[in-house]
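Hey, can you fold this one?
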Amino acid sequence: MKKICTVIFIVFLNFDIVYASSIINKDYNCVLTLFDGSDHPSIKFPLKIKKRYDDNYVVYSHGNIIRNEILVFGKLYANELIGFLYDDSHIQLEIFNFNDETLTFYLINISKEKNFPFSPEKSKFIAQGLNSLTGTEQKLSISYNINEDELNLEKKIFEFNSNFVDNLSNNKNLEVEDFIHNCKKI
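Sure. Predicted structure:
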């Protein structure tokens, strides 16, 4: 638990480094890593950066248990891509490390009413069923192309989520599950 909180804290240190565009133009195939270190036989999906925006913000996609494409608003840092998904009872911090080519999902239990004051406007990338055995879902009509107003809103929501998770990382009773995926460049 302490290790996860430390990782979350370190991740949210502000970086002013622009990541090389040659790295972010790669697509990856990812597979869930089991507890014994082996690859899951069927939970495999692509990870792709769909569109890059100013200030190193991006929209990227990955699959889920039932292989639906999930779009995530994220940000590129020195060696990482970080994004968030959330639903009514969970927030999922996603960290893709370019150096070791791992994608880790940190699923955090929250109480929407108690400790997650959602911004009045909701992200267009909000999810349903983050902890569902049938897989995470999103609206079918969402697009990775967003206009300037939507981009500004997504940036605000990203920073809100970033600060929220950073503050939560100081909570010793934080319930966190992590799911590690090994990825390879396509």
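The chain has one domain: 2-185. Let me know if you want another pass with a different chain boundary.
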